[in-house]
Design brief:
It comes from Sporomusa malonica. One of its GO terms (molecular function) is DNA-binding transcription factor activity. InterPro entries: HTH_MarR-typ, Tscrpt_reg_MarR-type_CS, WH-like_DNA-bd_sf, WH_DNA-bd_sf. A three-stranded antiparallel sheet has the order 1-3-2. The longest helix has 21 residues. By secondary structure, it is mainly α. It has a domain of 85 residues: Arc Repressor Mutant, subunit A (Orthogonal Bundle), CATH 1.10.10.10. α1 crosses α5 and α3 packs across α4.
Amino acid sequence: MNTLNSNKTGGYDIEESLGFLLSKCHQRAFQIFREKLSSHNLTPPQFSMLAFLWKKDEQSQIQLGTAMEMDRTTISGIIDRLENQGLVNRAPHPEDRRVFMISLTEAGRRLEHSVSCLSLKANTEIASNLSAQEKESLVILLKKMRGGSQ
């Protein structure tokens, strides 16, 4: 792929730009996830936090921020909304009261199966134009672009 095209003004073709294409793919994926999760009154970032907690319950707010690659203010807002919905608890760390530990409530645990199924459906829809091999390659390439195999 070459974003330089001699037929275009200035030699640059926005429609071939990785940044532009990734942005458009993100917008489409976010919209699909939002539609799928709306029945549970969840946003994609709230789902992501729950998914990290389903993977490993009781994490510090800092750990979740690092895992989700989000700043403290954004993470705090997501936790506030999940806490207001009764899906997570926030409690001071027993040894360091400056640190808050986030854990799932029973209601948060009960959501795992149904919401994970919605996420799988969203992923299937997002990748509907790709073969299984293309999807696998895309995941590898995106992880590589992101800077590792997280």
